Task: inverse folding
């Protein structure tokens, strides 16, 4: 299964790609973590992490939520696995309470390489099957209500019966839960309005233009079109499905006197309108590249781009489509 995953033909090739979920199910923590970053890098359009890709906007966000859950807890085959797919990062200190199949609320904490405990609340009194998170280290299952020991085991997988609403602690016999110190957190809910200062910006560039003047199309504001993966494209993504009325807008660009547009099209030629700060500047024609993906060309136009301007490429009446990889302001 791991070999199949490593040899898959189109990694992260669509906005709903399940690659990172599959990596978590296979116990590939680093790949699952990197997969979430890849998906965000390719398809995120808004500061909250969402995409405007209409080919799967909700599935896209669900991918990230599923990967995080599957990295912390798995119970898909009725075997409970705690922290099965975390990245190799000793500074990561995850804690969770999640619902597992069979009606079990599972809690755990991990710091560096130390999984401190596994807590189980049984909602329906079903029997439970747990993969030993410490390998074959000896464990005991302690019933919290009376501190009685329900099970001791050094197996890699163990089962025990539970009671309705029973709470159980799985701990190593050599390092019990009470060997840790704990803090009980308290606080007062914040009910007042909160405000950002006037000089606060939202976004990865902190409101400043990129210094090299290169802007990936998939990071533009997309209207009636969407990003799609292509390994031959810059950043392995292009913007596709431009039709009449569609546009992509690059905000807050640097000043320049030339604009390069890298594209692919099977129209002969493609043609899009170029708008600066909302005003039509000129039409750009895109000679046929004989392919919508895989083969790209660059068109250079002379124009005066003011500092901080917005650049929009729009499919106007009488135009024809082209897939856009990126623009470069010189």
Result:
């Amino acid at each position: 299964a791991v070999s199949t995953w490593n040899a898959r033909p189109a990694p992260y090739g669509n906005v709903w790609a399940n690659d990172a979920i599959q990596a978590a199910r296979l116990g590939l923590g680093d790949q699952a973590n990197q997969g979430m970053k890849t998906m965000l890098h390719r398809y995120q359009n808004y500061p909250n992490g969402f995409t405007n890709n209409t080919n799967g906007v909700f599935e896209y966000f669900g991918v990230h939520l599923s990967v995080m859950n599957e990295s912390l807890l798995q119970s898909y085959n009725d075997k409970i696995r705690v922290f099965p797919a975390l990245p190799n990062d000793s500074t990561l200190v995850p804690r969770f309470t999640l619902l597992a199949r069979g009606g079990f609320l599972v809690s755990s904490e991990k710091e560096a390489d130390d999984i401190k405990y596994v807590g189980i609340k049984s909602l329906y009194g079903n029997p439970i099957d747990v993969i030993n998170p410490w390998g074959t280290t000896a464990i005991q299952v302690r019933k919290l209500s009376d501190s009685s020991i329900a099970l001791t085991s050094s197996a890699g997988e163990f089962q025990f019966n539970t009671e309705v609403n029973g709470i159980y602690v799985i701990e190593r016999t050599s390092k019990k839960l009470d060997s840790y110190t704990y803090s009980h957190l308290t606080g007062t809910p914040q009910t007042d309005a909160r405000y950002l200062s006037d000089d606060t910006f939202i976004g990865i560039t902190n409101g400043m233009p990129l210094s090299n003047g290169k802007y990936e199309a998939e990071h533009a504001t997309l209207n009636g079109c969407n990003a799609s993966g292509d390994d031959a494209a810059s950043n392995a993504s292009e913007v596709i499905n431009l039709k009449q009325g569609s546009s992509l807008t690059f905000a807050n660009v640097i000043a320049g006197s030339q604009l390069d547009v890298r594209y692919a099209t099977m129209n002969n030629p493609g043609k899009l309108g170029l708008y600066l700060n909302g005003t039509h500047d000129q039409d750009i024609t895109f000679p046929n590249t004989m392919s919508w993906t895989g083969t790209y060309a660059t068109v250079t136009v002379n124009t005066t781009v003011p500092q901080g301007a917005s650049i929009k490429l729009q499919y106007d009446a009488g135009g024809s489509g082209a897939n856009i990889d990126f623009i470069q302001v010189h």
Notes: The mean pLDDT is 92. The first helix runs from residue 2 to 6. The two ends are 47 Å apart (CA to CA).
